[in-house]
């Protein structure tokens, strides 16, 4: 190559380099401009404090402690867990490991003897005070085990400083004896005066139809429908010192309640239970309407499962339109009464579960993890990482920074000195990058999932470019 050609080559290379730099700057400016066109949505407006289960942590035993982001609940069963009385022992062996990764509470299935005896999942209760210690309905132990094993599990959880929630079926009973029912003029299976424990005897006067009316808000499965207006029912469920609620709390040492099928009776029932018994409370109100969920939670003075969030996540992730995550949910309406979940023993529709768990474990509310998702179906290391992120980084109110069909970016705004986080969810098949505005000035940040190796520094105006892997998520916060 002669000297003149070499000079021409250098000039061309320089021009190409300048053009490349200008193109990069243009791309950066365009990306920033595109991000700035999205109007940030400040979803929640409160002082930033996390969801509270109403019980202070014990800081003396070195076990699970409440964290800046609040707690995580484990649903410690699934439908048709192994029969044979081994389940309480199985859960007992998991408690320490769950505590070590930051799970703060355990939700157990109904613990009392039910009509189907050794095969029942407990949702057809006969004797609320038979915990597997009376020979009744064809068995001494329940499907899950003995009273001694149940008490050992609860003690173990408390040793690990975890709370234990009982699944309470208050709408209906099953397994009563046949009796003449003066209210129906027929014979009905409403005689529970012979329960083995001798506690909470019931007759047809305690079930609809009776002297108080023909029905309440709902019945289930043709089972005798408890009439909570009946004085005997109120006394034995929540008023008496030796009644169901206070016995479970003070003798069995349960810390709270998951109430089954609360559509079947008025919210005042749970309000009265909570006022008389106390403890954490969450209702299963199977409805996607946020107004219905919020009204019930307020009237019952209770938390409620966020079915609105559940169905929106299903539509967003599996329907490939993350714009749906802008829609209303219980955690947005009332974050301190919303219990979020991805699947449970009754419903398991969401296919892209990892994205859904990334969502609930970085957002407000009280996230619940389903036993089979954690122990069998998903990557436990990734789940443990998300639990840690929830506990340590998911603090403060929530702002949505960007959404389109394939991308969703939200910011937790921090609380009480904790910096919060930015979560990026990518439902597309390729890596994505986007400029977003943080709450941090000139701060080095990193992805605490390890999915991205970037360690960028936010600009003086708090803007920074972050990335997210395909069909995955990244969670960014100050590198400290």
TrEMBL record:
Family label: Belongs to the glycosyl hydrolase 13 family.
Cofactor(s), by name: Ca(2+)
Organism: Flavobacterium xanthum
Entry-linked Gene3D superfamilies: Glycosidases (3.20.20.80), Golgi alpha-mannosidase II (2.60.40.1180)
Domain of life: Bacteria
InterPro entries for this protein: A-amylase_thermo, Alpha-amylase_C_pro, Alpha_amylase, GH, GH13_cat_dom, Glyco_hydro_b
Glycosyl hydrolase family 13 catalytic domain location: 71-412
Name of this protein: Alpha-amylase
GO molecular function: alpha-amylase activity; calcium ion binding
Entry keyword annotation includes Metal-binding: yes
GO terms classed as biological process: carbohydrate metabolic process
Entry keyword annotation includes Signal: yes
CDD domains in the cross-refs: AmyAc_arch_bac_plant_AmyA
């Amino acid at each position: 190559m002669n000297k003149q050609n070499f000079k021409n080559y250098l000039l061309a290379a320089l021009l190409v380099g300048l053009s490349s730099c200008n193109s990069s700057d243009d791309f950066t400016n365009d990306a920033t401009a595109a991000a700035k066109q999205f109007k940030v949505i400040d979803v929640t407006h409160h002082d930033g404090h996390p969801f509270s289960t109403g019980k202070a942590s014990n800081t003396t035993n070195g076990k699970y402690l409440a964290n800046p982001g609040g707690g995580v609940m484990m649903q410690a069963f699934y439908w048709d867990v192994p029969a044979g009385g081994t389940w309480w022992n199985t859960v007992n062996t998991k408690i320490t490991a769950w505590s070590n990764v930051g799970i703060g509470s355990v939700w157990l299935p109904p613990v009392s003897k039910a009509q189907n005896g050794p095969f029942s999942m407990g949702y057809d209760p006969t004797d609320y005070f038979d915990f597997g210690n009376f020979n009744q309905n064809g068995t001494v132990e329940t499907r899950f085990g003995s009273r001694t094993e149940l008490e050992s599990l609860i003690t173990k959880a408390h040793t690990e400083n975890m709370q234990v929630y009982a699944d309470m079926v208050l709408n209906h009973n099953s397994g009563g004896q046949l009796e003449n029912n003066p209210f129906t003029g027929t014979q009905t299976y409403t005689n529970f005066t012979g329960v083995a424990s001798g506690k909470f005897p019931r007759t047809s006067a305690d079930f609809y139809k009776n002297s108080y009316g023909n029905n309440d808000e709902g019945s289930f499965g043709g089972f005798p429908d408890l009439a909570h207006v009946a004085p005997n029912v109120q006394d034995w469920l929540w008023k008496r010192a030796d009644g169901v609620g206070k016995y479970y709390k003070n003798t069995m040492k349960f810390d709270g309640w998951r109430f089954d099928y609360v559509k079947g009776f008025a919210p005042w029932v749970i309000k009265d239970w909570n006022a008389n018994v106390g403890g954490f409370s969450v209702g299963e109100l199977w409805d996607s309407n946020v107004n219905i969920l919020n009204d019930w939670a307020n009237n019952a003075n209770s938390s409620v499962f966020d079915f609105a969030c559940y169905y929106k996540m299903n539509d967003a992730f599996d329907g490939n339109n993350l714009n749906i995550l802008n829609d209303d949910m219980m955690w947005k309406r009332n974050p301190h009464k919303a219990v979020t979940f991805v699947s449970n023993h009754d419903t398991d529709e969401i296919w892209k579960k990892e994205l859904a768990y990334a969502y609930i474990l970085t957002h407000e509310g009280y996230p619940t993890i389903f036993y089979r998702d954690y122990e069998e179906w998903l990557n436990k290391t990734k789940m443990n990482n998300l639990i840690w992120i929830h506990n340590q980084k998911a603090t403060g109110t929530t702002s949505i920074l960007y959404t389109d069909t394939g991308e969703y970016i939200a910011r937790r705004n921090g609380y009480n000195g904790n910096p919060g986080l930015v979560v990026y969810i990518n439902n597309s098949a390729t890596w994505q990058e986007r400029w977003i505005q943080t709450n941090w000035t000139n701060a080095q940040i990193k992805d605490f999932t390890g999915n991205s190796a970037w360690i960028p520094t936010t600009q003086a105006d708090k803007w920074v470019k972050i990335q997210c892997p395909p069909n995955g998520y990244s969670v960014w916060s100050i590198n400290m």
